[in-house]
Amino acid sequence: KSTPTNLSRMLEKRLKTVGPTSVLFYQEPLHIVRGEGVWLYDDSGNRYLDVYNNVPSVGHCHPKIVEAVCRQMAELNIHTRYLHGAIHEYIERLLDTMPSKLNRMVMTCTGSESNDMALRLARHWTKNHGVIVTEAAYHGNTSAVTEISPSSLKTSEPADHVFVIPVSEMPQAPDEAKTWFLDKVREGIQTLNDRRYGCAALIVDTIFSSDGVIADPAGFLKPSVDFLQSKGSLFIADEVQPGFGRTGDHMWGFARHDIAPDIVTMGKPMGNGFPAAGIVANDRLFASFNDEVGYFNTFGGSTAAVAAGSAVLDVIEEENLIANSKEVGLYLKNRLTDLAHKYEEVGAVRGAGLFVGLDFIDPSSSGTPDPAKTSKVINALRQNGVLIGAAGKYGNTLKIRPPLCFDNSHADFFLNQMERAITETR
Ligand code: PMP
């Protein structure tokens, strides 16, 4: 049982072992002991609706994934240095969901590793070093990838070889958004050329999760990507967040923009919690890299990771999770938009499928972002049995991103608790 005394003892022990680098959620941290579907349970048996976690994307502890991983672990779990048919089948299946020029895949363990390798491929191919990113993006935690993750830089400015697009200033109207983003990419290429780095790549999380969820207008990236590619730079679609059906229309977020990336990176939901991630590109890109640099990833593409990945694809299909994401996501977005009309502290609602962002604003100062209110609502929701987080340049966007098996009754529970939290925190 969790009593206040043993919670504080646990916190003390955490500080002495894990230390302060790994930050806990909530003013009153949670001790979660079990998960099932969209629900998490603490050590007192309290149930929480998980509206935060897109890693166990087909549901916490989904029996099919658990069974597939356990079965494989009991038989063989080994690296990719021996032939194993399952990885070929898995990769074939995954590549079938991509544009045809994306015809090879290397498996890794994390999104960070995939983006790190994407940078290496792009730099190797273009012989350029500069990268264009968006202003609050997060692409991972290696040293190279931290440099292109403005949201990780607490005190320093982005490095000289990084050009940052202030996407929070992008106009909403479709034509204006397209032109605005294109102008920024043009300026980015010019700036990186002037600084003598050249532009290796534009990397974008295609649902802009850390930037506060920018789903619309769908297609606004197309002119920019066409232009970038015509200049010989590469487009890296970071699908770690939007991939595997999250946005409701397609398997991949980039498909909403009608573009063919040069490199696609993925992770998080790929193994439903078992570490599985990957990078997809054209064979010529990999070949040119391999001529000079080797790549091996001990745990990437292990037989157990492939078992997890294959089971995830099965469940997405069997349970129609992409269609569910679209349907329930639309219901959720519409009901949240009703809340925006009802409560003056709720600003814009944006999203695609089961990835929705909702801004809290200060109504007394003509809509200034209100991260303090957002934080209060997040903590109130935690007390009311809902787990959720924030994103965006100002930290005032509620990031609504539940497992894809979320249904309308879960949405209703969430919406009721949201109304309660909004009024309780006034
Ligand atoms: N890209 C994006 C868009 C992410 O959100 C994350 C993780 N939050 C990463 C990359 C890094 O993935 P990982 O934590 O698996 O290294």
UniProtKB/TrEMBL annotation:
Keyword Transferase on entry: yes
Cofactor: pyridoxal 5'-phosphate
Keywords for this protein: Aminotransferase, Pyridoxal phosphate, Transferase
GO terms of molecular function: transaminase activity
Protein family membership: Belongs to the class-III pyridoxal-phosphate-dependent aminotransferase family.
Protein name: Aspartate aminotransferase family protein
Species per Swiss-Prot/TrEMBL record: Marinobacter salexigens
